[in-house]
Specification:
By secondary structure, the chain is an all-alpha fold. The protein is built from 4 helices and no strands. The protein has one domain. 88% of the residues lie in helices and 0% in strands.
Length: 110
């Protein structure tokens, strides 16, 4: 039974990572790398400040990863993934808008 499970898992992973590997999967991995980088950037900024910090780069990586993952989700025709990424893009863009608007207001006050 354990051998059958091991063989089934091996077949599954071979199909997922080898047989189905195409440029869409490459795009998905690149998109996932963007999403991972946003947390790396946030972690480094927080460690340097010794406080919880969300740098502007976090939102740029969020938008980059979100756009690429939305394209990937549209190709895969996954409604859950599409809805999640589309909503996330709205949130990321809105946060970036607030940062830009605050920066402009600060410059106008100076």
């Amino acid at each position: 039974m354990l051998v059958d499970l091991s063989q089934a898992l091996g077949t599954y992973f071979h199909e997922v990572f080898v047989v189905n590997f195409d440029w869409w999967v490459v795009l998905g991995f690149i998109a996932q790398a963007f999403f991972t980088m946003r947390f790396v950037v946030q972690w480094i900024a927080s460690e340097r400040a010794r406080d919880s910090v969300v740098p502007v780069a976090f939102w740029f990586f969020s938008i980059g990863g979100g756009v690429l993952l939305l394209i990937y989700a549209l190709y895969r025709k996954d409604p859950v993934f599409i809805a999640g990424q589309a909503f996330g893009l709205f949130v990321y863009a809105r946060n970036l808008y607030f940062i830009i608007a605050k920066g402009r207001a600060s410059k106008a006050d100076a």
